[in-house]
Amino acid sequence: MANSTLENITGTILLAGAGKMGGAMLTGWLSGGLDPRRVAVIDPHISAEITALAAKGIALNPDVTTAGQVETLVVAVKPQMFREAGAKLKPFVSDKTAVVSIMAGTTIASLEEVCGGAVVRAMPNTPAAIGRGITVAVAANNVSAQQRAVADALLRATGSVEWVDDESLMDAVTAVSGSGPAYVFLLAEELARAGVEAGLPEALATKLARESVAGSGELLHQSELASGTLRQNVTSPGGTTAAALGVLMGEPGLRDLMIRAIAAATKRSKELAK
């Protein structure tokens, strides 16, 4: 695959949708060295933060004539708005345009029908806002090596990127990593609640839960050890951790709950794609 970096992108990048995820991507692009003059943003409700970037050369809500030839269209609108928004975006797309979608449940076939172009379907997650996201992407057959490289550079600006060849995997990807942060936040929420039930002041329980989840996540990120090994390293035989894990890993336990949760999210993702 051809290599590409944000600094050597020479075509126009059109970002459709500058909400939380689109805005996070834009921030990552600029921090990574993408020339602001290469970027145009289309959004009916542009924030003050995005408006301020116009002074750096970013074009806001251009029409087809002023946007010029768009090398890559990044679609970051809400999936339920795509049919309407996509029709307005299609005039910006030529047979040379790569269309990179980060919309959950929106298939390559739908994107090709509504927008055209060479489609890359991607699923990021919310830690992208702090540059620690993970994105899984799949490319249509007509995406060139150079288009895939540019898409990779744009997606990698907010974290790591994994590529798959089978689009049917994207529903499970959405369930595991796309929705995954919510499961972690729920863990912190319920850990704090359990701490209160055990007698801790609410503020202290919340602090302990948040820092334990955040610190453990960072340890998991930095360590080369498997998550199971890290868990075992905390667990002394017959100790307090073992007593708690006996509940969490019992029957029915966290494993069964997580399998059911991922299955439910995967099923819903497939339903939304229809």
Protein architecture, described:
One of its GO terms (molecular function) is pyrroline-5-carboxylate reductase activity. The protein is of the alpha/beta class. It folds into two domains: 5-170, NAD(P)-binding Rossmann-like Domain (Rossmann fold); 179-273, ProC C-terminal domain-like fold (Orthogonal Bundle), CATH 1.10.3730.10. The chain is built from twelve helices and eight strands. It has helices spanning 20-31, 48-52, 64-67, 82-89, 108-114, 145-156, 170-178, 180-197, 202-222, 227-234, 240-248, 254-273; strands at 12-16, 39-42, 59-60, 70-75, 98-101, 118-123, 133-139, 159-163. It has an eight-stranded mixed β-sheet, sandwiched between helices. It is elongated, with a radius of gyration of 21 Å. The model has no long low-confidence stretch (mean pLDDT 93).
Nearest-integer average pLDDT:
93
Q: Assign the structural class, choosing from mainly alpha, mainly beta, alpha/beta, alpha+beta, or little secondary structure.
A: alpha/beta
Rg over CA atoms, rounded to whole Å, is 21 Å
- Sum up the overall morphology in one term: elongated
How much of the polypeptide forms β-strand, as a percent range? 5-15%
| Discrete helix count | 12
Domain Pyrroline-5-carboxylate reductase dimerisation: 167-272
GO molecular function: pyrroline-5-carboxylate reductase activity
Pathway: Amino-acid biosynthesis; L-proline biosynthesis; L-proline from L-glutamate 5-semialdehyde: step 1/1
Subcellular location: Cytoplasm
